[in-house]
């Protein structure tokens, strides 16, 4: 048997896979506000007979759109922090979205196992930097992803901590959708410490989110190609406090995200991985 690498049996299997039309996409999104416009646009339906373990808050929407089976998963609301608001005269569930790397990696793992997608799209909002020329509502397709808050200053553990991975290369998608290209850096905080700022610079990142590198880790582990579409809600090196700017822009920026994701799905439809 030929060894691993170009021309090996393994490489030829991957080449064959890349030439089959894509039939199933998994969209991973952290926040309900980001997810619902896409669910509505693609006319996805909530899965009432969950493929996930009983009791977890993870939510799956699914449907057939053109020639594609689409699954969109959202980690749901944190189970310990929810409450009901009775002010409206009916019970309205208030809760907090399970953002961050832990929930993102768990729901991605469970969804890949249950649904065996051909391609993952991790979509969401992100911070960006004016020194990198970014503006609010810009939409980025990340070329690389890495962590900026896993500091392990021991040789090789340091590289494991950064966990840098390339996203699946999609030059035609980038050009067709006229998206911006940049590297993505992930951490579990919305704000940024001086050490994290230095790591983001070391990662040469243009966009900063709270899930991407975790999704990339799981996708790489299970050998599923993944791409990352991130829309900018706040300028990290700007004048406004991040949380305030994020909340102010969230609803408007999700419209830009929704448009980019649905255009990406339209572009992917009928193509194989090697055509992206
Ligand atoms: N999502 C939106 N804005 C963000 C930021 N500044 N950092 C991390 N995740 C974000």
UniProtKB/TrEMBL annotation:
Pfam families: PNP_UDP_1 (PF01048). One of its GO terms (molecular function) is methylthioadenosine nucleosidase activity. Coiled coil: none annotated. Residues 25-265 form the Nucleoside phosphorylase domain. GO terms for biological process: L-methionine salvage from methylthioadenosine; nucleoside metabolic process. Signal peptide: none annotated. This is Nucleoside phosphorylase domain-containing protein. It comes from Populus tomentosa (Chinese white poplar).
């Amino acid at each position: 048997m030929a060894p691993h690498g170009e021309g090996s049996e393994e490489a030829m299997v991957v080449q064959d896979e890349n030439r089959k039309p894509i039939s199933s996409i998994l969209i991973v999104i952290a926040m309900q506000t980001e997810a619902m416009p896409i669910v509505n646009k693609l006319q996805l339906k909530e899965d009432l007979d969950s493929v996930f373990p009983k009791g977890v808050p993870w939510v799956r929407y699914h449907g057939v759109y053109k020639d594609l089976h689409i699954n969109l998963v959202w980690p749901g609301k944190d189970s310990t922090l929810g409450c009901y608001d009775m002010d409206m005269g009916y019970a309205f569930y208030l809760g907090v979205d399970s953002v961050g790397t832990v929930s993102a990696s768990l729901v991605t793992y469970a969804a890949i196992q249950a649904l065996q997608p051909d391609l993952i799209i991790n979509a969401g909002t992100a911070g960006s930097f004016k020194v990198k020329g970014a503006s609010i509502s810009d939409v980025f397709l990340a070329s690389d992803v890495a962590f900026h808050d896993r500091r392990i200053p021991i040789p090789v553990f340091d590289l494991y901590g950064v966990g840098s991975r390339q996203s699946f290369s999609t030059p035609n998608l980038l050009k067709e959708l006229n998206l911006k290209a940049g590297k993505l850096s992930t951490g579990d905080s919305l704000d940024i410490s001086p050490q994290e700022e230095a790591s983001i610079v070391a990662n040469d990142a243009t966009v900063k989110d709270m899930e991407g590198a975790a999704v990339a880790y799981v996708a790489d582990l299970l050998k599923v190609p993944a791409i990352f579409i991130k829309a900018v809600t706040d300028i990290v090196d700007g004048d406004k406090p991040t949380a305030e700017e994020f909340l102010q822009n969230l609803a408007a920026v999700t419209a830009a995200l929704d448009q980019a994701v649905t255009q990406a799905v339209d572009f992917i439809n009928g193509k194989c991985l090697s055509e992206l």
